[in-house]
Specification:
- It is a single chain.
- This protein has helices at 9-26, 41-52, 80-92, 109-123, 159-164, 183-187, 202-210, 218-221, 234-237; strands at 2-6, 31-34, 62-65, 67-69, 99-100, 128-131, 153-156, 177-180, 191-196, 229-233.
- It is of the alpha/beta class.
- It has a seven-stranded parallel β-sheet, sandwiched between helices. Strands 4-8-7 form a three-stranded antiparallel β-sheet, covered by helices on one side.
- Helix 2 (41-52) links the parallel strand 2 and strand 3 (62-65).
- It binds 2-amino-2-deoxy-6-O-phosphono-alpha-D-glucopyranose.
- 2-amino-2-deoxy-6-O-phosphono-alpha-D-glucopyranose binds next to loops.
- The site of 2-amino-2-deoxy-6-O-phosphono-alpha-D-glucopyranose (GLP) has 12 residues, from loops.
């Protein structure tokens, strides 16, 4: 595991974007599995700008969405779909045929899980995934209790997730189920980047990276992937010495 700590969230975003751009240049045709959430958005914005400037070609890549809130579609601000299409895919102008993302409004959950599994299998493996970390240690919607072998699936959401989820849906009802790429597909990725920023994340980052590896903190399971790179700002690194 490599851990990098940057002074601010802005520097973290810039450095993450540079790493992603290098990966895209060196690995055309690979599959990127990208988290939504607040943490990586600024980095994705830079990456979209690199593409628009002609410095990298994102249309040479494939994309799969990491997760989605069940029942919530593109039309709802805060949906992973709207965050990712408005904040990244369409901002960059990526051809939609390169992207498969869960649609929370599509009631055929099993069909979507099968389609995402098939999409990943067709591309061989996830080349690189960008993950955030939930306040309870979740990655995607792999909630506490998730196992390393769990695959693409629907998951009942933990009370912490629904409570924290209110930040995405101010005044709205927070869904109680999520759909997610599983730990199995994430752990098999060629490279994992996990990002965290802000002092609210410091305690869970510390537990995920320094305490025991346990399904109760799904992010800790990522330590089994030898290429795990953790990208933090100083606030999220807290007092932990990396
Ligand atoms: C959300 C999502 C994750 C995300 C994580 C952290 O609920 N399910 O994919 O990475 O929690 O989100 P944020 O970056 O907004 O803190």
């Amino acid at each position: 595991m490599n851990t990098w700590v940057y002074s601010t969230a802005e520097v973290l975003a810039g450095e993450t974007a540079k790493r992603l751009a290098e990966y895209v240049q060196a690995n055309p045709g690979k599959l990127l599995c990208l988290a939504a959430g607040d943490t990586p958005l600024q980095a994705y914005g830079h990456l979209a700008d690199f593409h628009r400037d002609g410095r990298i070609d994102l249309n040479a890549m494939w994309f799969v969405g990491l997760d989605e809130w069940v029942g919530i579609g593109y039309e709802t601000p805060g949906s992973c779909r709207q965050v990712m299409f408005d904040g990244f895919y369409d901002r960059a102008g990526i051809d939609h045929s390169r992207i498969l993302a869960f649609d929370g409004r599509n009631p055929d959950i099993d069909g979507q899980c099968m389609a995402v599994s098939r999409w990943i299998a067709e591309k061989g493996v996830i080349g690189l995934t960008v993950l955030g970390i939930g306040m309870n240690g979740h990655v995607g919607f792999n909630e506490p209790g998730s196992l390393a072998d769990d695959t693409v699936r629907i998951v009942p959401l933990d009370a912490t997730t629904t409570s924290v989820g209110q930040k995405y849906f101010p005044g709205g009802v927070v869904p109680t189920r999520g759909i997610t790429v599983g730990m199995r597909e994430l752990l098999a990725a060629n490279q994992i980047l996990m990002m965290a920023s802000g002092n609210r994340k410091a305690p869970i980052v510390q537990r995920a990276l320094s305490a025991e590896v346990t399904p109760e903190i799904p992010a800790s399971l990522l330590r089994a992937n030898g290429t795990l790179t953790v990208l933090l700002d100083e606030a999220a690194a807290g007092n932990t010495l990396f």
